[in-house]
Structures are given as C-alpha cells and as structure tokens.
Amino acid sequence: MSTVFPQWEVFVRARRGLDHQHAGSVHAPDGETALRAARDLFTRRQEGVSLWVVPSNEIVASDPADVGALFEPAADKAYRFPTSYELPPEVDHM
Amino acid sequence: MTADLLTHVLRQGDRALVLSHRLAQWITHAPTLEEDVALANISLDLLGQARHLFTYAGEIEGKGHDEDHFAYWRDAAEFRNPLLVEQPNGDFAVTIARQVFHDQAALLYWESMTESTDATLAALAARARNETAFHLQHSAGWLIRLGDGTDESQRRAQAGVDAMWPFTLELLGADDEGALRADGLIGGSIETAWRAAVAGTLLEAGLRTPTEADQRAGGIHGTHSEHLEPLLEEMQQLARAHPGASW
Prior knowledge:
The complex is a heterodimer of chains A (94) and B (247). Chain A has 94 residues and is α+β, with helices and mostly antiparallel strands. Chain A has a single domain (7-87), classed as Ubiquitin-like (UB roll) (Roll). Chain A contains two helices and three strands, in the order ββαβα. Chain A has helices spanning 31-42, 67-71; strands at residues 7-13, 21-27, 50-55. Chain A is flat, with a radius of gyration of 20 Å. Chain B is built from ten helices and no strands. Chain B is globular. Chain B has one domain (5-241): Up-down Bundle (Ferritin). Chain B has helices at 5-24, 33-61, 67-72, 83-86, 92-113, 119-147, 151-164, 178-182, 191-205, 228-241. Classes of the chains: A alpha+beta (94), B mainly alpha (247). Chain A binds chain B through residues 1, 5, 26-30, 32-33, 36-37, 39-41, 44, and chain B through 31-35, 37-38, 41, 134, 137-138, 141-142, 145.
C-alpha cells in the first residue's frame, strides 16, 4: 500500500484511579480507527479500562539539545526541594 | 425436513470456522500491520466460538465426537455454513463487505440467543455478542471509510457490496428451524433488523443497496459453491496427514 497513514500515540489506563500511561503507537487514517487498532494491540489481555489516542504530530516535544538549558538550573537551587523544610511531627510520615 | 438442534449448532459452528479460516488467509497480506492484527484477532474470536459450538455439537450428538472431529474429519457436503462465508477474499473491499453483512447478522443472532431456553447457547451468546459488536465496529467502520473515501475506494467498495449481496438472504435464518423457534431454543427472525441496519451503514458509506435479484443459497443444507472444498483441503491437510497428532 503506497499510502502511509498518520501515526497516533496510544495511552492506556490500566485500572480505575490510575493515570493513562503511554503504551506505544499505531498508524491509522483517523482517530476511531486508531482507537480500534490500539484496542487490538494494547488491551487484548485485559490490560486496560480506558484508551486515549493522540496524533503524534500534535505532541510538542522538548529538544534533546536543550536539555541543559531546560533541566539543569533546578539542581543548584536547594529551596526548590522539600528536604529544606522541617515537617511538624503530626505529618512526620508524609 | 425439520432441522434439529444439532443441525442448528453445526450451521453456526461451520459459519464461524469457515469465516475464521478465510480471515486467517489475510495474515501477512493485509494493507497495514495494524489491519493484519485486527483481522487475525477477529479470526481467532470466530475460531473460539466455533470450538465451543463444536464441543456442544458433540454433546448433543452423543457419539463421543470432539471439536476436532467436526473441524477436520467432515467433507464439504457435511458442512452447513451459509455460502457467504466460503466466498473468496477478493480485494480488501470484498472482504470488508462480506464481513459487514456477516457481522450484522451474527450480532443480531447472538443478541437473540441470549434469551435462548438452551443454557449452553445462552451463555455462549452473552460472550459472543460482545466480541461480535466489536467485529461490526471494525468492518462497518472500514466500509464507511472506503465508500466515503477516494473514487477508487468507492468503486471497489460498491463492487464488493454487489458481489457479496447475492449471499445475504441465506444469512437471515433457515426456513426449516420453526420447531426450534417454537421451543424458544432460537430467537425470532433477524431479517427486518438486519435490512434496516445494513441499509443505514450503506447509506452512511454513500453506497447503493443492491436489488434483491439472483439470491443464492444452499450452504446451510450442504450444497456449497466450488470454493469450500479447496478451503477445507488447506485447513484439514495437516490433521488428516497425521491422524491423532496433537500440537
């Protein structure tokens, strides 16, 4: 087949109360078809109670080259980490 | 001739088994990897239904036959599947048209069978209904996309619908099962509901509903088209070459 269908990212919620987790991707001409393909590929063994599919090209991703600029400045700012705070005894086991 | 429960169960089991094999023939040939997996999954669901039905047929018959006997050791004239499911796969549109007609009939059949006075068939129907509802979503979804797609996909979809239409009447119930119906073992006619649902799908797909001319039937009485024998030969070859083998 010469046509390559667009790619969709698949998110599966395993159980009630849990978050949807990224499971993989499928190719499909539209969302409904993508959902059915995702059902076949990722939930055939009762892995899920809910499915999301999202067009892959709608995801805005960070650039790996920017990893320093985006993520490094946090480490040297100790006040951003909760270890700086003393917890009152009432919530000691938080 | 009045059909007994064994005949009815074999008709359903053979329908599921033969269509399962036809769909399995698509594996590695489907338009996309996702569709390959989808058709294989539907094929396996149908195979599972056939196994339950054949096991139950063996119980009804009472001659000690297991599921393998009914699948592998009967010849074409002993099969009772409707002609539709033995028709060759053709292109993807032919397969999808065949599947829509089948799935709509199978869904209505299993829905009616959840009310059967036969506890075994009612229990099987409860599961098969859910499986079949998904099969229909898949096949009707494709038919609508093909019919509403490009000029070529619409032309092929209409050709598939036209080619499979002559085999649909036989799907809508046998004329010799009145006694089973009277006993509540099987449900009422699905014909009206099937026609309405299929007409709706074809309308949404922008396809014409063919005329009623030239309906073909006979499979449920054991008179098959030339296509069943080669299918069975392929399916039964291994079991017959190694009788009693297990794998």
